[in-house]
Write a structure and sequence with these properties.
It is globular, with a radius of gyration of 19 Å. The protein is of the alpha/beta class. It has two domains: 197 residues, Alpha-Beta Complex (2-enoyl-CoA Hydratase, Chain A, domain 1); 44 residues. α4 packs across α6 and α10 packs antiparallel against α11. α1 links the parallel β2 and β3. The chain contains twelve helices and ten strands.
Length: 256
């Protein structure tokens, strides 16, 4: 399997591994990815998801073997719809998602990483959307918005027009990555530590914050928020958190 799901306690690891294509994603791999996300969504014991590739590539873009079979424009539209289904499902998860990036993070890889809540990287990461140089296709408005929400529309336009790649340190500088580590082993360790820290935090606060970000991307600061605020303030977790703070102890959150 090139897309696999591994559960370790409250943390799930979604691994992309297809060495022959440097983890380039075929339509079937995107379908498999969406199926894994559906499994994660059904498992109420999970508190965080780590998405990772291999040491030399997170995801290097689309599998060109698929594109060679396209005969007309509708083929491309069907492919983009498959990708959107997977990315929208990832963004809709109530739990935190971490992209652990090593090596190539290009095209669909950059978009996938942008769809995660947190992005960390190894020093060998390379980032960009070189579709104007390599293939000559176009990504969707939703994907441009995903990238722009992280790095701004001007940088996304430059990425596409110039087809240049950013180094890991450059991407750290403009905020795509929140931190860098030395290599792939250190990346896995850091992703695990982050995920475990998140797993102890209030699930309803995390879910509400993620939904607010999604709404703001669509509706700006006029996005509705009263339902999300009410869900947190009316929860048992909120009262547990207040009590724990007053009593100077660690809160025990249950997601209710």
């Amino acid at each position: 399997m090139s897309v696999t799901l591994d559960r370790r306690g409250a943390i799930a690891w979604l691994r992309i591994a297809k060495p022959t294509t440097r983890n380039a994603m075929s339509a079937q791999m995107w379908r498999d990815f969406a199926a894994c996300i559906a499994e994660v969504a059904r498992d109420e014991s999970l508190r965080a998801l780590v998405v990772c590739g291999s040491a030399d590539a997170f995801v290097s873009g689309a599998d060109i073997a698929d594109f060679r079979l396209f005969s007309a424009a509708p083929d491309g539209l069907v492919y983009e719809a498959i990708v959107e289904t997977a990315l929208a499902a990832l963004e809709a998860l109530d739990i935190a998602t971490i992209a652990a990036v090593s090596g190539a993070c290009t095209g669909g890889g950059a978009i996938l990483a942008a769809a995660c809540d947190i992005r960390i990287a190894a020093n060998n990461a390379r980032l960009g959307v070189p579709i104007a140089k390599n293939v000559g296709n176009l990504t969707t408005a939703a994907n441009v918005a995903r990238l722009a929400s992280v790095v701004g529309s001007a940088r996304v336009v430059r990425w596409i027009l110039v087809a240049e790649l950013a180094s890991a340190s450059e991407a750290l500088g403009f905020g795509f990555f929140s931190e860098l580590v030395a290599d792939y082993d250190a990346l896995e360790t850091r992703a695990r530590v982050l995920a475990e820290a998140i797993a102890h935090n209030a699930p309803l606060t995390i879910a509400g914050a993620k939904e607010l970000v999604r709404r703001i991307r669509v509706d700006g600061t006029s996005a509705a928020d009263s339902d999300l605020l009410a869900r947190c303030y009316g929860s048992r977790d909120f009262h547990e958190g207040v009590a724990a703070f007053v009593e100077k102890r660690a809160a025990k959150f249950s997601g209710r």
